[in-house]
Amino acid sequence: MTLKPWGTIGWLLPRIGVEHWHLVTSSSFEDRCHGLTEWMLAQNRPIDSSVLLRITNPPSEFWEKAAPIVEQNFGVMQRHLTGPRHHVINAQLLSQLGALCTADSLNPEQSESVILDISTLPKRFFLFAFKQLVNSAKVRNLVVIYSRAHEYPESALCENALPPAALQGFGRIEASIEKPRMIVGVGYVALSVEELLDTAKYSTLDFIFPFPPASPAFRRNWDLLSMLMPNDIPRETEIHRIHGMDAFAVFERTLAWGQDRDLDLLPLGPKPHALGMAMAYMRLDGRAELIYSQPQAYHYNYSRGISKDENGHPQIFAYCLKRNGTPLF
Length: 329
Hints:
- The chain starts with 5 loop residues before the first strand and ends with a strand.
- The radius of gyration is 19 Å and the shape is globular.
- Helix 9 (247-257) runs parallel beside helix 10.
- The protein has ten helices and 18 strands.
- Strands 1, 2, 3, 4, 5, 6, 17 and 18 form an eight-stranded mixed β-sheet that branches. It has a six-stranded mixed β-sheet with strand order 9-14-13-10-11-12, sandwiched between helices.
- It is α/β, with parallel strands linked by helices.
């Protein structure tokens, strides 16, 4: 049986056996950006050091409303993360990541045990950071965490997406003659990729649906699917239902699909699904590519609150992806 070390943070973190952690996280306009630090303080779990990313979006009417909330949450998180071993990285949403998010800049204290909080980091940031930390010889233990939002508004979440392109650090290195297989993680927003799916004429097209369904999220997933489905639907088109928090299931499914064919991976769905695609990319020896259309403006009310379980505890999920220097995927 293959080990899949993921679950709620309260279940997983004590089982790793590490007491002292370095944290990589972000200040955001979303309430859940400080969910992890509040949980760790409440559990008397020390955060020995940290890197707090403060990301500025391009000027827009949406950023005018979001910026004060980011600064307010930045102040909250700085009160949680005080002392000389706690660092801040100021970044632009469209910054080149190669020099900004190196393993050394993300882990300046050279800690062996790192938590990467992807809850409110944009996908292009957290996927690049994840790859750097997995590949770092200094990092022996790596846990990725995701705080689930309480709800998303019915209105638009973001605007003005750039044309689809390979994410930095996740481009294809080798290409075969055969057309790649396209895997689409289904979320809420099309992000300007409809034309890509319609014109690329993929011979095989797979959609990964987050499961279990819940209204209105279920309806919005299907609305997006209807927008993305090309006019000339490939004969081999399938919908695969995977738990919205199960990064390992997405990893295993994607890795299996990539054994005999190049893959184009489009992570529009939940961040744990995007994480699973990145995990598979790192095992496919340059024969896959993660394609994304980066929004240039996020709405200040992108999400509200942190989801709670039946006992009233915050739903924070954790994924142990490296233990004692060995990747677990």
